[in-house]
Amino acid sequence: MALKYMFRNFLLLILSLTIVSCDNFGSRKIKNINELTPLLSVNSNEQITVNVDLESPFKNSIKSYAVAKSKIISNPVFAKGTLYSVDSKGVVTAFSVKEKRILWSQDVAGKIFDKNFVGGGVAYNNEKLFVTNGSRFLIVLNAKTGHELKRKEFPDIIRNKPVLLSEKEVIIQTISNQVFDYNIDTANMVWQHEGIVETLTSRKHIDPIIYNDKVIISYSSGQMVNLEGKTGQEIWQVNLANDQDLSLPNFDPSSISCQPVIEENNIYVSSGTNKITKLNAVNGQVVWQVDASDIKSMSLNGNNLFTTNNAKQIVALSTYDGKIKWISDLDFKLDKHKAKAASFLNPLVLKNANGWELAVIDNIGGIYSFAGNNGNLETMPILTKIMKNAEYSGVTCCGNIYIIADNKALFFNK
User: Fold this and answer.
1) How far apart are CA 380 and CA 331, in angstroms?
2) Model pTM score
3) Most buried in the list 212, 231, 233, 296, measured by CB within 10 Å?
4) How many CB atoms lie within 10 A of CB 250?
């Protein structure tokens, strides 16, 4: 009899644990990322005003070209009709946009056995390329030939793009929250700045920004600092993380979630603490701050800050007060539970035959184009299919839109 009661109690315990572990009784549903992100809603009737210079090319024929040997690990740079990129194997490649062919490739990784680099980037100035590739090195190449000119080792891994402060000075940021102003000609450090050191981090790395001879740095701790370009002296500092996150090594997404946007004397920043903040670039004071979770990309046009999020929404916020004046869904599947997580590139405002449109590119194979209409936007887009795995986009030196997917580039001619 005792064994019978023990067996019954064991079965009841198993049943109770099963019920607790389910989302609802009888359900084994697992929420996906877009269901976990809080939805935003419209709370303003302000009209949408835009400045349109770039023509929409998406109805024209497109063709992709292999512009590198392996997956490109940062947004390429264009100069004098050439696309320069660095890939996951540490190879820098020059691709002629006009001739549609690779001009040269240079392996800057050397004899490293495990070649699987993440992050870094390429900068161009005066026929020189400045390259980082997720290693400790800054490499300077001849842009015409690919021949290595100089190499400098830094104290830690560099996953940020090198940013030129002047023809001779380059800003380098390491994963250990160190920033260096390095003079290429003299091979000396001009100045150095350090943020709070974290022993663990999984956060996105935001490239330094040069603005009015100042250097704006976003550290993985959630700190944003504005430094004097000549001396490295700190002008202001803002903490975009929760106070308890600072100095504590953790994997909480407290740092900046996508590249900030600068306009005149304002900086728009999205942080992992579920806030979008407008800062005064001169003194670092908060102009406004709004709740917004899991922001994937941002761009600024007219009186609008266009953003995308993990809930697969595209949103237009007022630059004046941060209120939301327009929203649309970027996932039109009937079965939301089968929807795949997606990332979105920076939204684009483009001129078309009927006026203008707002376009956003995702990484699972689509361009969504929303028609502009009398100070507003349509909520249903025209969907154009493109190559999957789109990760970077921008405008070439000739004014054409490009998209980078894996080791390929798609060029949309005017």
Assistant:
1) 11
2) 0.85
3) 296
4) 13
For residue 128, pLDDT over 90 is answered with yes
CA–CA gap between residue 81 and residue 64 (Å, rounded): 17
Q: Where are the alpha helices (DSSP H) in 297-411?
A: none
Gap between the Cα atoms of 100 and 66, Å rounded: 9
pLDDT digits (tens, 9 = 90+) for 358-413: 999 998 888 999 999 888 899 999 888 888 899 999 988 777 889 999 999 998 87
Mark out the alpha helices in 193-281 (DSSP H runs): none
Measured in degrees and rounded to the nearest 5, phi and psi for residue 35 equal -80, -25
For 97, other C-beta atoms within 10 Å of its C-beta total 20
DSSP structure class, residue 337 = G
Query: 189-193, 278-282, 359-363, 381-385: which range is least confident on average?
Result: 381-385
For the beta sheet containing 82-86, the strands, ordered from the edge strand earlier in sequence to the opposite edge, are 77-79, 82-86, 91-96, 101-107
Q: Which structure tokens are listed for 195?
A: 């943020």
Helix ranges (DSSP H) in 238-351: none
Segment 70-78 mean pLDDT? 95
Phi and psi at residue 14, in whole multiples of 5°? -60, -40
